[in-house]
Amino acid sequence: MTQTQAYLYLAFAIGAEVIGTTALKASDSFTRPWPSLLTVGCYALSFYLLTFSLRVLPTGIAYAIWSGVGIVLISVISWVVYQQRLDLPAIAGLGLIIAGVAVINLFSKSVGH
Known about the structure:
Blueprint: H1 3-26, H2 33-53, H3 59-81, H4 88-107
InterPro entries: EmrE-like, Small_drug/metabolite_transptr, Small_multidrug_res
Family: Belongs to the drug/metabolite transporter (DMT) superfamily. Small multidrug resistance (SMR) (TC 2.A.7.1) family.
Subcellular location: Cell membrane
């Protein structure tokens, strides 16, 4: 597997995790069956896809990207879909997460470039 393929699997894993977490809110503490099934299915798919990226990418790097990008995307979706507003410190913190993911990908020797 190439590094490009590993990042593609990671991107799909992030997408599945974001859909699952969005459905988690809609599941209303697992009292609504369809969002609950979507949550469980997406989380399972996300972890499955993540395992493929771990064939090439170091675990810590892949997980940092997976969780960091997921946090930012979920925050944006929650803002838009559920009207959960973000204050300035929250936005600054999300900016730092984005900066951290960028630093890892652009400068870290842990990831082959």
